[in-house]
Amino acid sequence: MKPVTLSDIAERLNISITTVSKALKDYPDVSPKTKALVKELALTLNYRPNSFAVNLRTKESKTIGLIIPVIVHHFFSSVIKGIISQAEKKGYLVIILQSNESYELEKKQIDLLINQRVDGIIISLANDTVDFKHLNDVISLDKPLIMFDKIAKLVKCSKVIINDRQAAYDATQHLINTGCKRIAHFRGSLLPQNSIDRFLGYKKALVDNGIPYDPNLVYICECDDKSFEEGKKNAIKLLEDHDDVDGIFINTDLVAIGAIAAFNDLGVKIPETISIVGFSNWFMSSVISPTLTTVDQPGFEMGKEAFKQLFKEIRQRKNNLPVTYEEIVLKTSLVKRESTKTELTNRV
Amino acid sequence: MKPVTLSDIAERLNISITTVSKALKDYPDVSPKTKALVKELALTLNYRPNSFAVNLRTKESKTIGLIIPVIVHHFFSSVIKGIISQAEKKGYLVIILQSNESYELEKKQIDLLINQRVDGIIISLANDTVDFKHLNDVISLDKPLIMFDKIAKLVKCSKVIINDRQAAYDATQHLINTGCKRIAHFRGSLLPQNSIDRFLGYKKALVDNGIPYDPNLVYICECDDKSFEEGKKNAIKLLEDHDDVDGIFINTDLVAIGAIAAFNDLGVKIPETISIVGFSNWFMSSVISPTLTTVDQPGFEMGKEAFKQLFKEIRQRKNNLPVTYEEIVLKTSLVKRESTKTELTNRV
DNA sequence: GGTCTTTTCGAAAACGTTTTCGATAAAAAT
DNA sequence: ATTTTTATCGAAAACGTTTTCGAAAAGACC
Asked: What is the per-residue pLDDT across A248-275, written as a single tens digit (0 to 9) for each?
């Protein structure tokens, strides 16, 4: 019933624990004969090294922690998948925690992970995280920390992000290229950096194309479970306020889909009357009607890159090499679908 | 730089490690004065118990493993959320692995988790898992195992499931109650039990209502990333084969949404000409047009129940109590939306 | 003052592994 | 035959904690 240990094997073979341990790890100073003997017995006894003891000795757990704001979300679950897939290749396990967009929870969870002595932490910040002490604590403990998507620019650690500003710029440019003259923007809440960057990209694209920026065309919608309703509501309001709008760049797909639903109900033609571009390339956007033009946010790749960088830093620390922080910016791409017209000119 | 240990505290206070340990855990045989002293110093030194050492001594890791076929899926990510939320309350961490619907991977991952010495395992089986040795291994190691959703009926352990058969029966009955006379069924692949049960429920509802079961009306679609296309294709085929069909009960929402898209394209009126019921209540089904009547599969609750049962069994084993396996069947509910007509009669 | 109880503490073993370093035996070299 | 090298092994410490059990000190009681 008790799990078999090195000592069990040693006893049966009348050799020392040391030799058993070495045999299993193919040390050069143990004869092929005993190696074979040990390995065979280990197999038949179904020996499994006690990870607690190993961790205690080696001071590493081969485990990393992941904190994300929400799990039930296409983008984030894609990231999880990316991280896990990469971690598995390197023999690492992943402990996942959900901060629920709460700063307080996030703090507690960071603490939990440190107590658990994970080898590193990957995190996407909660929306209401404004203080970064808990993150700097991780760094000062010399534990590798990677931030992705929702990051704190001021914290000195590696980051995996997309160029939200450029992506938003490109999305808006696409609307302009397809003939839109008066373009609205549904943005997210004021806090997260993404929201700000996307807004700035939108604004810059307008200005660069000689279209005056009109703050009245910018609507704020909270991104949460009610995003869909929010999108509907704002779409209707926009139509009442400004009947000359012919394009909208929307902060996130779900809101965009809400807007599409509203326009469909009202008989507003998409893209003929109003063109729409979303953000995220949530799976749903390829399935609704009309299918949604949107910015593809490569969640899976972000997860992979985040783990790769984490792994690199773990290795660097282990070998006492200088740790190099990197800012990895992944490419987004505009997925052109039915909710926008075809471009008139071919602009790069 | 080195993490502070009990011995560090002991040294500074000129007391023994034993006393420090006891003080921190509020043993009765240490004076209030030294307790206060120890606790204060522990706080200022930011002492964190080394979990490896604790685990090694106590032989438990306060960690559980979770294996699911896919992460990027509304139902499964809801389950994850349910498990994590409950685990956090009890001070457990969750290691998540994705089997990718592969039996081989599943085996390896079970092994990984056992080696990691998690306190218990929660699993939803891969579609191509037909042999259950790896699961019985877990049980014979006396490690708590809970299966949910995709289960193996023959394995002796607790299970958290829904009554797929009843749910399918109710869904089909709803179609009948709303006036459908000739009802097709898009089912999943032949292997997983859910697929079979849903099919049986569909069949029984027909027979119970005096509607002859016609095997030609049953289409098989693989449930994967291409489900949407699969749904479209089968919908078109169905229309060609049988122009008298007025209702479809579909194994899973995504396929149903594909079918809706196809019918929308073809100008087939939903629900007037054909009514559709899906399965899962994936978030999308409330967002497409027409909104989809579907069976709500309570993922979050399943996750919660699965962890609760696991926790119970961990406790039982720890206290040397007899372990009781339970089969927890959660209620599903039919969410009536626009893709079906209103019921003619009120049947219970 | 002596016995007895209560309070407070610490030595030591144990958990299972990894790794260093020295010991022994066999083989090779002189 | 003696020394040197090589191959093979094991003792022991260390990782940081928990817990048992006994010891010492302090207080209570006669």
From this structure: 999 999 999 999 999 999 999 999 999 9
CATH superfamily of B164-297: Response regulator (3.40.50.2300)
In the 8-state DSSP scheme, what is residue B348? Answer: -
Strands A333-335 and A293-296: antiparallel
Place of tokens 């039919």: B334
Residues of chain B with CATH 1.10.260.40: 6-49
Residues 201-240 on B with a CB inside 8 Å of A are 228
Q: CA–CA separation, A313 vs A294, rounded Å?
A: 34
Window A27-46, strand C contacts by Cβ < 7 Å: 29
Residue where the block lists tokens 């997983």: B192
For residue A236, the tally of other CB atoms under 10 A from its CB is: 15
Distance spanning both ends of chain A, measured CA to CA:
68
Between CA B40 and CA B122 the distance in angstroms is 40
Q: Specify the 3-state DSSP secondary structure of A95.
A: strand
Helix (H) or strand (E) holding B95: strand B93-98
CATH 3.40.50.2300 positions along chain B are: 59-156+299-330, 164-297
Count CB-CB contacts under 10 A for residue A272.
9
Helix (H, G, I), strand (E, B) or coil at B282: coil
A48 in Cβ contact with A78 (< 8 Å): no
CB contact under 8 A, B117 and A51: yes
CB A250 within 8 A of CB A279: yes
Q: Is residue B24 within a helix (H) or strand (E), and if so which, with residue range?
A: helix B17-24
CA distance A314 to chain B (A): 16
pLDDT per residue over A306-342, tens digit each? 999 999 999 999 988 899 999 999 999 999 999 999 9
| Sequence ranges of chain A with CATH classification 3.40.50.2300 | 61-156+299-331, 164-297
Q: What is the mean pLDDT of chain B?
A: 94
Give the Cα-Cα-Cα angle A146, B307, A94 (nearest 5 degrees): 20
Q: pLDDT tier at A348 (50, 70, 90 boundaries)? A: very low
A14-38, pLDDT tens digit by residue?
Answer: 999 999 999 999 999 999 999 999 9
Contacts of residue B145, defined as CB under 8 A and 6 or more positions apart, other chains included, come to B120, B121, B122, B123, B135, B138, B139, B155, B157, B158
Architecture of the domain spanning A61-156+299-331: 3-Layer(aba) Sandwich (3.40)
Which of B160, B198, B156 has its CA nearest to residue B329?
Answer: B160
Report the distance separating Cα A119 and Cα A134, nearest Å: 17
The fold of B59-156+299-330 is Rossmann fold (3.40.50)
Distance of alpha carbon B340 from alpha carbon B334, whole angstroms: 11
Protein-nucleic contacts, chain B 58-87 to strand C, CB < 7 Å:
59
Residues B119 and B55: beta-carbon distance below 8 Å: no
Phi and psi (nearest 5°) for A326?
Answer: -130, 150
CATH number belonging to domain B6-49: 1.10.260.40
Residue to mutate among A80, A83, A93, A97, with most B CBs inside 10 A, is A93
